[in-house]
Amino acid sequence: MSIVLLFIAAVVSGCINTEGELQFEIDGHTLQANERLYLRLQDGSTPLTSDNQGGHASFSIINPDYKKMIGGFIHDSATGVSWVPRFEYEDVYNSSKVYLSEIAESKPRAKPVTAVQAGRPVADSNKPGFVSVTYAVYGKNREPVDDRTEIYIETSEQVVFYDNEPRHNGQTQSRAISSFTDKGLVTFTMMSSLIDSNEPNLSAIPIALYSGPTPIPIVTGGHAELSALSLSEGSLFPEFDPTITSYAADVAYGVSNVSVTASVYDVHAVLTVNGTEVPSGQASEAIVLNVGSNPIRVDVTPLTGDVKTYTVTVRRGAAGSSSNGGGSGPASHDDGLLSSTNGRLTLPAGREGRLSLGEAVRVSVPAGAAERELILVIEEVLDTGKLLFDKERLLSSIFEITKNVPENFKRPVTLQLAYDSARLAEGQKPVVFYYDEALAQWVEIGGAADEGLLSVQVNHFTKFAVFAVGSEQKPVEPKFSDIGGHWAEGAILEAAGKGLVSGYANGSFQPNAAVSRAEFAIMLMNALGTPAEEAAEYRFTDAAGIGEWARKAVAQASQAGIVSGYADGSFRPNANVSRAEIAVMLARASRLSLSEGSPTSFADDRDIPAWAKAAAAELNRLELMKGRGGNFFHPNESATRAEAATVMLRFASHRTE
After folding, report:
1. Topology classification of domain 332-470
2. What is the DSSP annotation of 21-78?
């Protein structure tokens, strides 16, 4: 009597005779030329298959090394989808013939492109010591994948998986297991000495998901930034930067409408302009402009995480007027001095100017401070939630002061901020701070009382505020809200304390997020203790896309020969840095003497690019950069921020030895 089982369930059981040849018979269907059946192996090696499947209703797969099978799937090379059909065994305990059915009916419409951990891992009350984690798997249309999409999870040897198929009587598999989705969800139940079942946290173990041969990125926090933003009429001020969310543009009265073209980094993020969804990289519908200010809202909604909003205020001139040349406020002329009191000023190259926003903040630019025309803007920052962790010490509003050119001023610019002296406690004094976007923290400048304001001199613009500081107090420091219990918690805190790494403005460190090439360049320059002076200019073709917060570090690292670009001349600052790239950068920064051409001791040595082999081997020998579970180096995978912090700590320590 036949026992009807799911294909994956039967093979995972481990009770099937997997020696020699396994024959397959297809009921009412033949595999198409681009479809092929594969059987997964417990050791993670290449799945078994055969070459005579297309167009046949029967075929066989040989298991020459008698390896244990833990799952199987059909893969369509044309569409990239992998799925688990229905399966029938004559004798589930001892059979060499398998019957497949419902192949076409089970086939998914689209392949997975991302997975999101659906809630926290939970302890399984029915299986002591085990915890369960569920992933929501999505296709490119942001909808859950079809049921029966094959999902394979792979981790370290220290992890044991419980087989959730109820007819298998609690069998387990080590290191990896195969399953499939149900309504877009897949659940894995696991146990490891690295996982505390009372307070489950999977950050201590490496986890990789696949569907068939395709890796599935696991998204823990969506990327909610624009990669480009422009208008059909008028120029943005300041120039577009993904980290800047507020822009202005001036157009003449004759411009009655504009369209917005925006692009997103994250292909899974939804982009809307004034509430209407717009495909990334395509122009929105025309937006009618009234005379005066016209705010346009651009929202980026990631697959998971918070929405990020960009605002573009388009100012249309009145009838008979023309654009005022970049958004300057009314300017008065006094012996060559240009001034404005509304927070906006266009200043010709080399001219002296004064700019204020009411009585709260004043900026004085001396003659000769810049060689190019400047467009200066002062704006009060209203959304301060992600910038402040100790609001009681804030004595002024936070102001963001911007200019249209990235270069620092050639002569010091004087900044004056009003503050509330009544909020000063005994032993405290007012101090001006600027916000370091790269480090996501406030940095003390100082300040002297001048006409009831606190006055400082600066050579660049960013966010500024006045804080109360006691004689023994430190400025507001970043707090990492998401590293408690993480395997790298101690290393992260130590690296941050030494100024090697930093967190984000919302107080998180995001230890499992990937590190970008620009971020890693900053970490390296922090560890090397590079001087404050400017580095020579670099000539990457995408230099304009390198954020101002990272320009100096990338330039210094490039000048020192530590980082390099790609064959097309680009640097790709926002691309995830690979482990192979990190090895080479660290080796260059350490000035290591490398023996090219020698193989490494890693299990995946053949996957390590030739240009990175020597660096990977030497760093492993020095214990500066180690492999992951099973002695695999994983050269092409991204490094997490936690791994980067650990590596940078070792690197800094090695330099002092």
Report:
1. Chondroitinase Ac; Chain A, domain 3 (2.60.220)
2. EEEEEESS----TTEEEEEEETT--PPB--S--TT-SEEEEEETT-PPEEEEEEEETT
